Amino acid sequence: MSDIQMLIDMGFPKEKAERALEVTNNKGVEQAMEWLLAHADEPLPPASMAAAASAAGDSSSSTAAGGATTEPSTEEGAAAAEEPVAKSLKCDECGKLFKSQEEVEFHAAKTEHSSFSESTEEKKPLTEEEKKAQLALLEEKMRRKRQEREENEKKEAMERERLRIKSGKDMLEARRKMEEQEMKKLMDQRKREKLESQQARDRVRAQIEADRAARKAKESGETTAVSPTSTAPVSSPPAAAANPTSTTTTTTPSKPAEAKSYTTAKIAIRMMDGTQLVQTFQAGEQLAAVRLFVQLKMDSVDAAFGLMTNFPKKVFTAEEYEMPLDKLGLVPNAVLIVTKAP
Q1: Share above pLDDT 90 across residues of the chain, in percent, rounded to a whole number
Q2: What DSSP designation does 321 have?
Q3: Helix-helix angle 29-38:128-226, to 10 degrees
Q4: pLDDT digits (tens, 9 = 90+) for 158-172
Q5: CB–CB of 2/29 below 8 Å?
Q6: What is the C-alpha separation between 277 and 293, in angstroms, rounded?
Q7: Is the dihedral of CA 134, 139, 145, 147 positive or negative?
Q8: Which of 17, 38, 123, 200 has the fewest CB atoms within 10 Å, counting from its CB?
Q9: In this model, does residue 298 exceed pLDDT 80?
Q10: H helices of the chain, where?
């Protein structure tokens, strides 16, 4: 808000506010306000000079036009002397006195009063106490406006900060959901490819079994045609059963060799920047799933990197990424280190 607008809001006429700022060299509202209170009863110099010039012009024109003027009669002079002279303007609704038309217009715009009349009462100049009281009132108004402005600015700053924090949280949440969806999509694709590969292997295996069965059937038919008594070697199983000690000896060591079955693998991953990630995978998942998880957690998705173990030290190859975690010995838990691509 400009200084002149602030002075107008305090109740000073626009012309006097402009004059006060001009006299005080635009040094601020307080000095202009002090000048206005000190010269509240003085008319504006431009207005008085304009009135004198117009009066001089009227007298010269009347002299040139009429040549000589006639003196009024004694009775007319006495009547004119008895007529009351308007010394101020008065608001009929609140009774306030004004010195100029500008003050009347300002009062009407501020209070919406519309009834004004001329008054013979003269607006008394403010006393020192009244000037101090009015100055204190104006300073209080300025202080309240300044306080309101500071409170509004503080509220706006808090609202902007709240919106910024909310926007940051929304962006993080959206990014997290996007990463989860992308990882889920890639995992589904990996599972689908794995299923298709397994089905293809099953079809090949079934075809091999069918070919083997057909070949056995063909060989069996040829053997029967050549030697009908070819079933004699069937008596060999009792010979094996006749020696139970040897059978027990061969089967007994296989029991301690049975490994415990794990369904999950807890993998601790050490990133290149020193941070560590821990994630649980299915034991049957491929090592490529771990690589995909690391790739999603890195800043650059296209960055090239590799995976290795420290004990024993081993760098995984491209073929091993297609192998399941349990076949690579990474269950039930393991530590992988992210390295730069060779």
Answers
A1: 25
A2: G
A3: 160
A4: 999 999 998 888 999
A5: no
A6: 10
A7: negative
A8: 200
A9: yes
A10: 3-9, 14-23, 29-38, 45-66, 74-82, 101-111, 128-226, 236-241, 244-251, 287-297
- What global pTM score does this model have? 0.29
The one-character DSSP state at 286 is: B
CATH pick for 264-340 out of 2.40.50.140, 3.40.50.300, 3.10.20.90, 3.90.550.10? 3.10.20.90
Residues 213-270: pLDDT tens digits?
A: 988 888 887 666 555 544 444 444 444 444 444 444 444 444 454 557 889 999 999 9
Separation CA 265–CA 285 (nearest Å): 9
Residue 37's alpha-carbon distances to 3, 95, 120, 135, 142, in angstroms, are 16, 21, 24, 8, 16
- Distance, CA of 57 to CA of 194 (rounded, Å): 109
Q: Give the DSSP H/E element, type plus range, for residue 265.
A: strand 264-270
For all residues of the chain together, what is the average pLDDT?
77
Contacts of 314 (CB under 8 A, 6+ apart): 308
Boundaries of every domain in the chain: 3-39, 88-119, 264-340
